[in-house]
Amino acid sequence: MNKGIKMRNSNKHIFLIGFMGTGKSAVSKELGKMMELDAIDTDALIADISGMSIPEIFENKGEDYFRALETNVLHRISDFQGSIVSCGGGIALKDENLEIMKRAGKIILLTASAETIYIRVKKDTQRPLLKNNLNVEYIEELMKKRQPAYDKAADIIIETDKKDILHICKEILMNLRMLEGTE
């Protein structure tokens, strides 16, 4: 059996942040297998806790309510044993969320071009912020607004354009090793 790669401090989390469609969910699952850690998806956890899908939360309760649920979920996750956490695309926009993630582990920003994101999400109807705005120009505009928060949060930045999941995971592991070597 292939032994997973463990971080020295396995009670720390690895938070994957970035714009929707950068591969956070898929990468978290594969990275979790490779590192023998649980993979947690904040959006899935929010849907489970609230009993509503993300689009339903946005529709019925609004974005502010959803953002409060994200913070609540981060507080809960920070009490768990180390895991790989796939975060919703807007989670890094709130300073309180960044503080929670920085205390609980390392933050990895996954990036992709607006064109790549459009191709990846164009058939996905579960993206409330893209409802009636599913085009490259809008995606690019929203990405530019979020970029300063993403950059502020990131311990590591990984570009995902034209890379498969395994390559992205290997790149993350290499960067984590280098980061651990400097601490």
Structural commentary:
This protein has 183 residues and is α/β, with parallel strands linked by helices. It is built from eight helices and five strands. The protein has helices at 24-35, 42-50, 54-60, 63-78, 95-104, 114-121, 136-153, 165-181; strands spanning 13-17, 38-41, 83-86, 105-111, 156-159. It has a five-stranded parallel β-sheet, with helices on both faces. The longest helix has 18 residues, at 136-153. The chain is globular, with a radius of gyration of 16 Å. Substrate binds at residues 43, 67, 89, 146.
In short:
The chain is an alpha/beta fold.
Q: SS-based structural class?
A: alpha/beta
Continuous helix count: 8
- Shape summary: globular
CATH topology: Rossmann fold
The count of DSSP E runs of length 2 or more, i.e. the number of strands, is 5
Poorly predicted regions are: none
Q: Determine the N-to-C terminus distance.
A: 30 Å
Rg, alpha carbons: 16 Å
The residue-averaged pLDDT reads 89
Specify the CATH class.
Answer: Alpha Beta
Name given to the CATH architecture: 3-Layer(aba) Sandwich
Number of domains: 1
Biggest sheet statistics: 5 strands, parallel
EC number: 2.7.1.71
Keywords: Amino-acid biosynthesis, Aromatic amino acid biosynthesis, ATP-binding, Cytoplasm, Kinase, Magnesium, Metal-binding, Nucleotide-binding, Transferase
Pathway: Metabolic intermediate biosynthesis; chorismate biosynthesis; chorismate from D-erythrose 4-phosphate and phosphoenolpyruvate: step 5/7
Binding site for substrate: 43, 67, 89, 146
